[in-house]
């Protein structure tokens, strides 16, 4: 399932999409939490695309990637002569997003001085360009994101408490990839299809053992790491099927492919056995449906279970919508 660029069938991602669709209809400020690479920017864009502002600009800025002395100018703009190098007036991100949505990524890295000015815009809808004296007003919807624990930073005096509460009107947490392993085959298929189309490759897919290894790996870099790996393997192979032997050592080492050994790697923090078993079962069901092109009778034969048993499990794991894959595979 793909909805506004977000791909997944897991219960975790369904919950995210459910909340995102609800908040999109309002102008409330949203604070998206998530580890690096979990797709916070995609979630913000999805909210914008489903909002009444969807026909207006979506402007994004990574507050942690721009030097502190330049970030204020990027956000609010500046007037000519405001500082050395300011040779002409500049429109900032807030003005660019007028009537639309401004996405402030990694807002937890913002300096205290800028936090005050951001709070003013959120509360009053007005600001001045750097070096300017004219007050400007904007009508925008703000979505912020961070990989940091802002409550901890508030307690340490690194983030303003009033700004924190103003931003977190609606908090939304994106799950890391290791907590939505069921979606890995879908993501791999999506990334591979795009790369094949872009470069004209003929990579047929990943073998069953390779997908099991990918599903067992903890993915510290989350979806971004997975996407980069799929691209790398596609470029190196360009055709045929990618097998477990093609995977990096660190991924092959995360799982034993012997039937006598456990599939999931146990970290120092431990693992929930029931969750691991359910995720593995869901992943196998998705793989069988892919291989059978959505035909449940064939998928049941591959799994050596009755069709009625498979249908019950598909309903239990909310995989009913996966029936669309039959048409996609046939095409």
Notes on the structure:
- The chain has 15 helices and eleven strands.
- By secondary structure, it is an alpha/beta fold.
- The chain has two domains: 174 residues, 3-Layer(aba) Sandwich (Rossmann fold), CATH 3.40.50.300; 153 residues, Orthogonal Bundle (Helicase, Ruva Protein, domain 3), CATH 1.10.8.
- A five-stranded parallel sheet has the order 4-5-8-3-9. A two-stranded antiparallel ribbon has the order 1-2.
- A hairpin with a 2-residue loop joins strand 1 and strand 2.
- The longest helix is centred in the last third of the chain and has 19 residues.
- 33% of the residues are buried.
Which helices and strands occur, and which strands form pairs?
Layout: E1 2-3, E2 6-7, H1 11-24, E3 30-33, H2 40-49, E4 58-62, H3 68-76, H4 93-96, E5 101-105, H5 112-124, E6 126-128, E7 135-137, E8 141-146, H6 150-155, H7 161-167, E9 170-173, H8 184-199, E10 202-206, H9 208-216, H10 222-237, E11 239-242, H11 249-252, H12 273-291, H13 296-303, H14 307-316, H15 325-330
Helix pairs in contact: 1-2, 5-7, 8-10, 12-13, 13-14
**CATH class membership of the largest domain:** Alpha Beta
Number of helices: 15
List unreliable stretches of 5+ residues: 256-263, 322-331
Q: In percent terms, what proportion of residues is strand?
A: 5-15%
- Main sheet specs: 5 strands, parallel
**What's the architecture of the largest domain, going by CATH?**
3-Layer(aba) Sandwich
> In which order are the strands of the major sheet placed?
4-5-8-3-9
Structural class: alpha/beta
- Assign a percent range to the helix content: 40-55%
Overall radius of gyration: 23 Å
Q: End-to-end distance, in Å?
A: 17 Å
Number of strands: 11
Q: Domains counted in the coordinates: how many?
A: 2
Residue-averaged pLDDT: 88
| H and E order | EEHEHEHHEHEEEHHEHEHHEHHHHH
